[in-house]
Specification:
The structure is a single chain. This protein has 2 domains: 28 residues; 145 residues, Glutaredoxin. 38% of the residues lie in helices and 20% in strands. The chain has 5 helices and 7 strands; from the N terminus they run H-E-E-E-H-E-H-E-H-E-E-H. A hairpin with a 4-residue loop joins strand 1 and strand 2. The chain starts with a helix and ends with a helix.
């Protein structure tokens, strides 16, 4: 019995080492995780209203790229607060893009937004290609991109956008 357990552990370790070896042979190419100071990956996504939006078309503005989903409880709690935050800054050089990773796309997102009276511009990333290009692994996840397209802040998990610190963070980016 002990001998079988030992052989199982040895076999598991060998399989793990083999996986690591082959991943190294490919150069360890998996999704990159975008960090503060990196250039924000370019994307073009369809908005819920049918238009296409690209990150590069917003160059010169401060852009908040916010990845979320209707099935994510912290996202559902955060989105109305983020919506109020964005509406309070209408007319500024801040552009808030709520990027939904719901597999159901518009069919899943539209009714949720209506029910919750959310007016944020929502982009659809149902195959999570853009989310993956940012290395997003936990929702919600927010990236603050400066006027030159560089990520200045990465926030993993829900943020309370009603707090003064949130307003100060955005104000600081808008001044630059």
């Amino acid at each position: 019995m002990v001998k079988k357990a030992f052989l199982f552990i040895v076999l598991a370790v060998l399989v793990l080492l083999g996986i690591l070896f082959f991943a190294g042979q490919r150069g360890g190419k998996g999704p990159a995780i975008v960090r503060e100071g990196d250039r924000a990956p370019e994307f073009r996504l369809a908005a819920l209203d049918g238009r296409n939006v690209s990150l590069s078309s917003l160059r010169g503005k401060v852009v908040m790229v916010h990845f979320w989903a209707t099935w994510c409880p912290p996202c559902v709690d955060e989105l109305p607060i983020l919506d109020r935050f964005a509406r309070a800054r209408t007319g500024s050089d801040l552009e808030v893009l709520a990027v939904s990773v719901d597999e159901g796309g518009a069919a899943a997102v539209g009714p949720f937004l209506q029910r919750n009276r959310i007016s944020l511009p929502v982009l659809l990333d149902p195959d999570r290609a853009v989310s993956t290009s940012y290395g997003t692994f936990k929702y919600p996840e927010t990236y603050l991109v400066d006027r030159q397209g560089v990520i200045r802040r990465k926030i993993i998990g829900a943020a309370d956008w009603s707090q003064p610190g949130a307003a100060e963070l955005i104000a600081g980016l808008l001044k630059k």
